[in-house]
Task: inverse folding
Protein backbone atom coordinates (compact mmCIF):
# COMPACT_ATOMS: atom_id res chain seq x y z
CA UNK A 1 0.00 0.00 0.00
CA UNK A 2 1.19 3.50 -0.80
CA UNK A 3 1.23 6.11 1.95
CA UNK A 4 1.17 9.25 -0.22
CA UNK A 5 -2.05 11.26 -0.35
CA UNK A 6 -4.15 11.84 -3.49
CA UNK A 7 -5.54 15.38 -3.48
CA UNK A 8 -8.82 15.79 -5.35
CA UNK A 9 -8.83 19.35 -6.69
CA UNK A 10 -6.15 21.45 -8.36
CA UNK A 11 -7.18 25.08 -7.79
CA UNK A 12 -6.31 27.75 -5.25
CA UNK A 13 -7.92 25.92 -2.32
CA UNK A 14 -5.94 22.79 -3.28
CA UNK A 15 -2.69 24.79 -3.10
CA UNK A 16 -3.42 25.76 0.51
CA UNK A 17 -4.41 22.20 1.42
CA UNK A 18 -1.27 20.71 -0.18
CA UNK A 19 0.87 23.02 1.95
CA UNK A 20 -1.10 21.95 5.05
CA UNK A 21 -0.54 18.28 4.20
CA UNK A 22 3.20 18.87 3.65
CA UNK A 23 3.44 20.82 6.93
CA UNK A 24 2.03 17.85 8.86
CA UNK A 25 4.51 15.50 7.17
CA UNK A 26 2.31 13.93 4.48
CA UNK A 27 3.52 13.49 0.91
CA UNK A 28 1.15 14.22 -1.98
CA UNK A 29 1.52 11.96 -5.03
CA UNK A 30 -1.02 13.46 -7.46
CA UNK A 31 -3.80 15.97 -7.72
CA UNK A 32 -6.92 14.91 -9.57
CA UNK A 33 -8.48 17.80 -11.47
CA UNK A 34 -10.58 18.46 -14.55
CA UNK A 35 -9.61 18.82 -18.24
CA UNK A 36 -9.06 22.58 -17.81
CA UNK A 37 -6.82 22.20 -14.71
CA UNK A 38 -3.14 23.23 -14.95
CA UNK A 39 -0.53 20.49 -15.54
CA UNK A 40 0.81 20.89 -12.02
CA UNK A 41 -0.46 22.35 -8.76
CA UNK A 42 2.34 23.58 -6.47
CA UNK A 43 4.64 21.23 -8.40
CA UNK A 44 2.35 18.18 -7.92
CA UNK A 45 1.34 16.51 -11.23
CA UNK A 46 -2.35 16.91 -12.04
CA UNK A 47 -4.37 14.05 -13.53
CA UNK A 48 -7.15 15.73 -15.47
CA UNK A 49 -10.22 13.58 -14.80
CA UNK A 50 -11.95 11.82 -11.89
CA UNK A 51 -11.67 8.69 -14.04
CA UNK A 52 -8.06 8.36 -12.78
CA UNK A 53 -9.25 7.71 -9.22
CA UNK A 54 -10.10 4.05 -9.78
CA UNK A 55 -6.68 3.34 -11.33
CA UNK A 56 -4.91 5.13 -8.45
CA UNK A 57 -6.84 3.02 -5.95
CA UNK A 58 -5.91 -0.16 -7.84
CA UNK A 59 -2.31 1.03 -7.87
CA UNK A 60 -2.29 0.94 -4.05
CA UNK A 61 -3.05 4.53 -3.05
CA UNK A 62 -5.46 4.54 -0.13
CA UNK A 63 -5.40 8.04 1.36
CA UNK A 64 -7.24 10.99 -0.19
CA UNK A 65 -8.06 14.58 0.62
CA UNK A 66 -10.88 16.50 -1.11
CA UNK A 67 -9.56 20.03 -1.71
CA UNK A 68 -12.64 21.56 -3.32
CA UNK A 69 -14.14 24.80 -2.01
CA UNK A 70 -17.72 24.11 -3.09
CA UNK A 71 -19.47 22.42 -0.18
CA UNK A 72 -21.83 20.31 -2.27
CA UNK A 73 -19.12 19.15 -4.70
CA UNK A 74 -16.72 18.35 -1.85
CA UNK A 75 -19.43 16.27 -0.22
CA UNK A 76 -20.24 14.43 -3.46
CA UNK A 77 -16.60 13.67 -4.30
CA UNK A 78 -15.91 12.51 -0.75
CA UNK A 79 -18.71 9.98 -1.06
CA UNK A 80 -17.33 8.81 -4.40
CA UNK A 81 -13.74 8.29 -3.18
CA UNK A 82 -14.75 6.58 0.07
CA UNK A 83 -16.96 4.19 -1.90
CA UNK A 84 -13.84 3.35 -3.93
CA UNK A 85 -12.07 2.44 -0.69
CA UNK A 86 -9.99 5.58 -0.11
CA UNK A 87 -9.61 6.81 3.48
CA UNK A 88 -10.00 10.57 3.97
CA UNK A 89 -7.23 12.31 5.90
CA UNK A 90 -7.31 15.67 7.70
CA UNK A 91 -5.18 18.68 6.76
CA UNK A 92 -4.55 20.76 9.89
CA UNK A 93 -2.08 23.63 10.01
CA UNK A 94 0.57 23.45 12.73
CA UNK A 95 -0.24 27.17 13.15
CA UNK A 96 -3.86 26.44 14.12
CA UNK A 97 -4.85 26.09 17.78
CA UNK A 98 -7.13 23.13 18.33
CA UNK A 99 -8.42 22.33 21.82
CA UNK A 100 -7.64 18.78 23.00
CA UNK A 101 -11.33 18.47 23.93
CA UNK A 102 -12.59 19.43 20.44
CA UNK A 103 -14.10 16.62 18.36
CA UNK A 104 -12.77 16.48 14.80
CA UNK A 105 -14.24 14.50 11.91
CA UNK A 106 -12.37 13.27 8.84
CA UNK A 107 -11.49 15.04 5.61
CA UNK A 108 -11.42 18.42 7.35
CA UNK A 109 -9.14 21.39 6.57
CA UNK A 110 -8.06 23.76 9.34
CA UNK A 111 -5.98 26.66 8.05
CA UNK A 112 -3.28 28.76 9.73
CA UNK A 113 -4.43 31.00 12.54
CA UNK A 114 -7.71 29.18 13.09
CA UNK A 115 -8.71 28.58 16.71
CA UNK A 116 -11.07 25.76 17.74
CA UNK A 117 -11.98 26.00 21.41
CA UNK A 118 -13.10 23.57 24.11
CA UNK A 119 -15.60 20.83 23.22
CA UNK A 120 -16.38 22.28 19.80
CA UNK A 121 -17.38 19.72 17.16
CA UNK A 122 -16.05 20.00 13.62
CA UNK A 123 -17.83 17.43 11.46
CA UNK A 124 -16.48 15.55 8.43
CA UNK A 125 -15.35 17.58 5.41
CA UNK A 126 -15.54 21.00 7.10
CA UNK A 127 -13.23 23.84 6.15
CA UNK A 128 -12.18 26.12 9.02
CA UNK A 129 -10.40 28.76 7.00
CA UNK A 130 -7.53 31.13 7.79
CA UNK A 131 -7.88 32.93 11.11
CA UNK A 132 -11.45 31.76 11.81
CA UNK A 133 -12.34 31.25 15.47
CA UNK A 134 -14.81 28.62 16.63
CA UNK A 135 -15.56 29.04 20.30
CA UNK A 136 -16.51 26.52 22.98
CA UNK A 137 -19.30 23.99 22.31
CA UNK A 138 -19.96 25.11 18.74
CA UNK A 139 -21.18 22.36 16.40
CA UNK A 140 -20.20 22.75 12.75
CA UNK A 141 -22.13 20.35 10.50
CA UNK A 142 -20.68 18.15 7.76
CA UNK A 143 -19.14 19.86 4.71
CA UNK A 144 -19.73 23.36 6.08
CA UNK A 145 -17.20 26.11 5.34
CA UNK A 146 -16.27 28.83 7.82
CA UNK A 147 -14.43 31.40 5.69
CA UNK A 148 -11.35 33.40 6.72
CA UNK A 149 -11.55 35.67 9.78
CA UNK A 150 -15.04 34.58 10.88
CA UNK A 151 -15.74 34.61 14.62
CA UNK A 152 -18.30 32.18 16.04
CA UNK A 153 -19.08 32.76 19.72
CA UNK A 154 -19.88 29.92 22.12
CA UNK A 155 -22.60 27.32 21.46
CA UNK A 156 -23.27 28.33 17.86
CA UNK A 157 -24.63 25.57 15.60
CA UNK A 158 -24.00 25.64 11.86
CA UNK A 159 -25.91 23.12 9.73
CA UNK A 160 -24.41 20.80 7.12
CA UNK A 161 -23.27 22.35 3.81
CA UNK A 162 -23.63 25.90 5.12
CA UNK A 163 -21.17 28.64 4.18
CA UNK A 164 -20.24 31.49 6.52
CA UNK A 165 -18.74 34.29 4.39
CA UNK A 166 -15.43 35.97 5.07
CA UNK A 167 -15.25 38.09 8.20
CA UNK A 168 -18.73 37.25 9.53
CA UNK A 169 -19.53 37.27 13.25
CA UNK A 170 -22.13 35.12 15.01
CA UNK A 171 -23.30 35.83 18.57
CA UNK A 172 -23.62 33.00 21.16
CA UNK A 173 -26.29 30.26 20.98
CA UNK A 174 -27.34 30.98 17.38
CA UNK A 175 -28.65 28.08 15.26
CA UNK A 176 -28.00 28.20 11.53
CA UNK A 177 -29.76 25.64 9.33
CA UNK A 178 -28.57 23.45 6.46
CA UNK A 179 -27.23 24.91 3.18
CA UNK A 180 -27.32 28.49 4.47
CA UNK A 181 -25.18 31.20 2.86
CA UNK A 182 -24.07 34.01 5.18
CA UNK A 183 -22.72 36.92 3.12
CA UNK A 184 -19.27 38.40 3.72
CA UNK A 185 -19.02 40.68 6.73
CA UNK A 186 -22.41 39.80 8.19
CA UNK A 187 -23.26 39.91 11.89
CA UNK A 188 -25.74 37.15 12.73
CA UNK A 189 -27.85 37.90 15.82
CA UNK A 190 -30.89 35.63 15.19
CA UNK A 191 -31.44 32.02 14.11
CA UNK A 192 -31.47 31.28 10.36
CA UNK A 193 -33.62 28.60 8.73
CA UNK A 194 -32.24 26.18 6.14
CA UNK A 195 -31.50 27.10 2.51
CA UNK A 196 -31.47 30.86 3.08
CA UNK A 197 -28.99 33.57 2.09
CA UNK A 198 -28.54 36.33 4.65
CA UNK A 199 -26.40 39.48 4.47
CA UNK A 200 -25.67 42.60 6.45
CA UNK A 201 -25.39 43.99 9.97
CA UNK A 202 -27.51 42.63 11.48
CA UNK A 203 -27.90 39.81 8.94
CA UNK A 204 -31.27 39.74 7.13
CA UNK A 205 -32.63 37.32 4.52
CA UNK A 206 -31.66 38.15 0.93
CA UNK A 207 -33.32 35.20 -0.78
CA UNK A 208 -34.13 31.50 -0.48
CA UNK A 209 -31.57 29.32 -2.26
C1 LIG B 1 -24.05 36.93 -0.12
C2 LIG B 1 -23.54 36.63 -1.50
C3 LIG B 1 -23.40 35.11 -1.68
C4 LIG B 1 -24.60 37.16 -2.46
O1 LIG B 1 -24.26 36.86 -3.74
P1 LIG B 1 -25.41 37.05 -4.89
O2 LIG B 1 -26.56 36.14 -4.60
O3 LIG B 1 -24.68 36.91 -6.19
O4 LIG B 1 -25.95 38.51 -4.64
P2 LIG B 1 -25.64 39.87 -5.44
O5 LIG B 1 -24.17 40.11 -5.58
O6 LIG B 1 -26.49 39.85 -6.68
O7 LIG B 1 -26.21 40.97 -4.42
C5 LIG B 1 -27.61 41.07 -4.13
C6 LIG B 1 -27.79 42.23 -3.18
O8 LIG B 1 -27.21 41.89 -1.92
C7 LIG B 1 -26.19 42.82 -1.55
N1 LIG B 1 -25.10 42.06 -0.95
C8 LIG B 1 -24.43 41.02 -1.48
N2 LIG B 1 -23.53 40.55 -0.63
C9 LIG B 1 -23.60 41.31 0.48
C10 LIG B 1 -22.90 41.32 1.71
N3 LIG B 1 -21.96 40.41 1.96
N4 LIG B 1 -23.25 42.23 2.63
C11 LIG B 1 -24.22 43.16 2.39
N5 LIG B 1 -24.94 43.20 1.22
C12 LIG B 1 -24.61 42.28 0.29
C13 LIG B 1 -25.77 43.48 -2.86
O9 LIG B 1 -25.22 44.76 -2.64
C14 LIG B 1 -27.09 43.51 -3.60
O10 LIG B 1 -27.86 44.58 -3.11
P3 LIG B 1 -28.84 45.43 -4.07
O11 LIG B 1 -29.85 44.44 -4.58
O12 LIG B 1 -29.40 46.45 -3.14
O13 LIG B 1 -27.96 45.97 -5.14
C15 LIG B 1 -22.13 37.25 -1.78
O14 LIG B 1 -22.23 38.67 -2.04
C16 LIG B 1 -21.15 37.06 -0.63
O15 LIG B 1 -21.07 37.84 0.33
N6 LIG B 1 -20.36 35.95 -0.73
C17 LIG B 1 -19.39 35.59 0.27
C18 LIG B 1 -18.04 35.30 -0.41
C19 LIG B 1 -16.98 34.86 0.58
O16 LIG B 1 -17.00 35.16 1.75
N7 LIG B 1 -16.02 34.09 0.08
C20 LIG B 1 -14.95 33.56 0.89
C21 LIG B 1 -14.21 32.50 0.14
S1 LIG B 1 -13.00 31.72 1.13
Result:
Amino acid sequence: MKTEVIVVGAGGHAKVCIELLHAQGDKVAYCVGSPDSPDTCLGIPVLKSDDHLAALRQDGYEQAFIAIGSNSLRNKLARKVTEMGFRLVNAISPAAVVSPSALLGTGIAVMAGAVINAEATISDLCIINTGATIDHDCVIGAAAHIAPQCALAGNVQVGPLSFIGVGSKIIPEIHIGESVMVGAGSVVISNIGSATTVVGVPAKALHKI
